[in-house]
Specification:
Elements (H helix, E strand, L loop, with lengths): L4 H16 L9 E2 L6 E2 L6 E3 L6 E4 L5 E8 L6 E5 L3 E3 L2 H10 L5 E9 L2 E4 L3 E6 L6 E7 L10 E6 L5 E6 L7 E7 L6 E7 L4 E6 L2 E5 L10 E6 L5 E13 L7 E14 L4 E3 L10 E7 L5 E7 L13 E8 L4 E2 L3 E4 L7 E7 L5 E7 L12 E6 L5 E3 L9 E6 L5 E6 L8 E8 L4 E2 L3 E2 L7 H4 L3 E8 L8 H5 L2
Parallel strand pairs: 1-9, 3-10
Antiparallel strand pairs: 2-4, 4-7, 5-6, 5-8, 8-9, 8-10, 11-12, 11-36, 12-13, 14-15, 15-16, 16-17, 18-19, 19-20, 20-21, 22-23, 23-24, 24-25, 24-26, 27-28, 28-29, 29-30, 31-32, 32-33, 33-34, 33-35
Length: about 475
């Protein structure tokens, strides 16, 4: 059924606004001195001009609902009625409204019917920013149970519409499992993904040509994971890890993934060779989650002291960096940037902004499998001043992880479990690189208000891409 998602979404997007349209405006008889609550919450968010129209449900109890949609101080552009408070905004009307009212907030004005009387609520503003967003994102859709591994896949979503397409699905490749997708600076023509199974390997696409390789380093015993493309598109930094999974019978962290062994390596795509160095492949440290700088001369990564299997919850990673000389294939001496372990915390998933000024990372209590750590938050490091802070304007009381910068560095996408505590949903936030601050984040718009109530898969590692990805042929994945 997964390959029918996009068709269902587009069909519902076309039908719902027609059923909900209302030509007769209701004038409220009284006023409520508050704005109504929405789910997902779009109140006061900042959205790019090229983002699809949001859908939501008004959470205030009522017998009937009216929604007026307008811009600035002008009269409403159109009206909708709903018996259950669910509203889906017409995609074409939304696009015309935001494009025709540049710089003006979009106003959502709700009226509710209670005990035979209509009450008006204060308007909700959605701020439209002229900083356009990359047109697509790619992500892995995954069920929580491993028994459904063959129903996972890597997908792409057009952000200006609700179109979703598969890049590759597990159901099309017998006994194989795809994961760990990554793009070079968001380029749809320069990407890679891992394949696990009897014919495992790494599929690399460059200039539209796909090839499956096995990027191992002779000096390291384990395969490649956690990729990061060099800005040139020729090299990929990997961690080489021996990973163990723990399944808990109690508690709020049912799954834990821990490194038994972890080192860094750099793979030369053109030469089909990998190299490492003694300072990033030691028995003394676990080195993981490499991330290139935009200049391509340094790698930020996470490093921890190893622990025995029984003490996986005492493994805590610091943020480090190391210089890399690609000409000589050598590494410099690693430097600790944030000693999180000394504060009883652990760093994972460092990502440097395209301008090289900012580094966004995840901070949790221990380990690096932050997607199951409720306390996991996003933190921002200023690489010029060295100051770091929690991104309170973005964080919630649940998981924030798997973050990626847009190609302009003015938007991020990340996975958050704030809606229900169970499923990771894609959230976006606008970023001001001059001040280092974010605007209020919003959930990826869907054509139905209750989409996230019934869609029981997580969006893992949402990543911006600057164009559509041609699907990967299953034959490439299964061939030796």
């Amino acid at each position: 059924m997964t390959h029918h998602i996009s068709h269902r979404l587009l069909l519902m997007a076309a039908i719902i606004p027609i059923l909900s349209a209302c030509n007769n405006r209701i004038s409220p008889e009284s006023q409520v001195d508050a704005s109504p609550r929405l789910n997902p919450d779009y109140a006061g968010v900042t959205m790019p001009i090229n983002m699809a129209a949001p859908s939501f449900k008004v959470l205030e109890e009522a017998d009937d609902y009216q929604l007026e949609v307008g811009a600035g101080d002008a009269s409403a552009s159109w009206y909708l009625r709903s018996k259950d408070g669910s509203f889906a905004l017409d995609l074409d009307k939304w696009r015309k409204l935001v494009e025709g009212n540049a710089g003006q907030p979009i106003k959502l004005t709700v009226s509710t019917l209670n005990d035979g009387q209509w009450r008006g609520w204060l308007p909700i503003d959605i701020y439209i920013n002229g900083d356009t967003i990359d047109p697509w994102i790619a992500y892995r859709l995954i069920y929580p149970g491993y028994e459904l591994w063959n129903r996972m896949g890597i997908y792409q979503r057009q952000l200006s519409s609700y179109l979703q397409e598969p890049i590759i699905e597990n159901k099309d490749i017998e006994l194989q499992c795809v994961n760990c997708h990554s793009f070079a600076k968001g380029d749809a023509q320069t990407m890679m993904l891992h394949v696990r199974g009897p014919q495992g390997g790494t599929v690399i696409r460059r200039e539209g040509h796909d090839v499956k390789v096995n990027p191992r380093c002779p000096a390291l015993p384990n395969g490649a994971v956690y990729p990061s493309w060099h800005p040139s598109g020729r090299y990929i930094a990997f961690a080489s890890n021996d990973i163990k999974q723990f399944f808990h019978l109690a508690g709020d962290k049912p799954i834990e993934v821990s490194d038994m062994w972890a080192d860094l390596m750099v793979y030369d795509v053109e030469a089909d060779k990998a190299f490492t160095g003694p300072c990033v492949s030691t028995e003394e440290w676990l080195e993981t989650f490499p991330s290139w700088t935009p200049a391509g001369d340094e790698i930020y990564f996470c490093r921890a002291l190893p622990r025995n299997d029984l003490y996986y919850d005492s493994i805590r990673y610091d943020l480090c960096k190391v210089s890399v000389d690609l000409a000589t294939q050598t590494f410099g001496e690693p430097e600790v940037v944030i000693a999180a372990s000394q504060e009883g915390k652990s760093v994972s998933f460092p990502r440097v902004s395209p301008d090289g000024r900012w580094l966004l990372y995840t901070l949790s209590d221990y380990g690096n499998f932050s997607i199951w750590h409720k306390e996991s938050d996003l933190w921002l490091l200023d690489l010029v001043t060295g100051t770091t802070r929690p991104v309170d304007e973005v964080n919630s009381d649940n998981v924030e992880s798997y973050h990626t910068w847009s190609s302009t560095g003015r938007w991020i996408v990340f996975s958050s479990k704030r809606l229900d505590g169970l499923w990771g949903r894609p959230y976006f936030a606008h970023f001001d690189p001059a001040t280092g601050t974010f605007d209020k984040p919003f959930a990826l718009p869907q054509p139905q208000a209750d989409f996230y109530d019934y869609f029981t898969r997580s969006y893992n590692i949402p990543e911006f891409i600057t164009g559509r990805v041609e699907p990967i042929s299953p034959e490439v994945v299964v061939n030796p």
